[in-house]
Write a structure and sequence with these properties.
8-stranded mixed β-sheet; 11 helices; 8 strands; about 45% helix
Length: about 280
Amino acid sequence: MEIKKMMVVGCGQMGHGIAQVCATGGAEVYMYDVSKDAIQKGIDAINKSVGRFAQKGKISEEEAKAVAGRLKAVTSYDDVKNDVDLVIEAVIEDIELKKKIFEELDKVMPENVILSSCTSALPITEIMSLTKNRHRTIGTHFHHPPVLMKLVEVVQGYGTSDETVKTVIEFLTRVGKLPVPCKDYPGFVSSRVGIIMVNEGINCLADGVSTAENIDKACAAGFNWPMGPLKLADLIGLDTCLYVLEDLTAKLGPSFMPSPLLRQMVSAGDLGVKTGKGFFDYSKK
């Protein structure tokens, strides 16, 4: 099976980024959200992004127009149920909401349509627990921002077939990503390793080891990372970091215990880039 047409459910930052990746790679992309405004904002963001790539000479004007032409807004699953090969859900990290979405998709989409969830740490098997056709369910952990980050963890749930894994890996490779298969285990690979790095960076700040700027500078220069753990936390969202740490603490033990400073900042509403303030100030940018 070759994936030629797909739908993204959820048109926020991750959703429209995934849609851009797939459309740039040549797929026809349907964009769905419960909010029509969110769909339009997602399409506008994609067009703006590919326009910048064209201005910088990274793609041609013709390619930018072709990407825009591959995007279509839809307001119902029924509108595309016989016209897609893959659905990628990219809503917020709320497992009950995700389960509800996949229960609905499983009832509407023909059995040959692959159903995938984009989640950084939630268990794919549980997300898909209300579906009947488990063989066609899978996880695709895109990293933020999807347009720039090459890695996609391909997560095989308890009932996921090998054929589904193979098909998704081939598709992601074709659209320019680096798919890495892994088992449905808490935190997968990158979130499990990465969240420890983030949490220890926060602990270093809380313990007064150094300033936020210097902690990030040390990690970026010392380990050749593109950014330090505190800036990364701000980009991910401190509330999301806390959720992942709490989930992994419950499943894997106290080594993932969230920093008390992280809890305080989330309680105060300083969640990072999306609120304008986290470990760094983004309000003037």
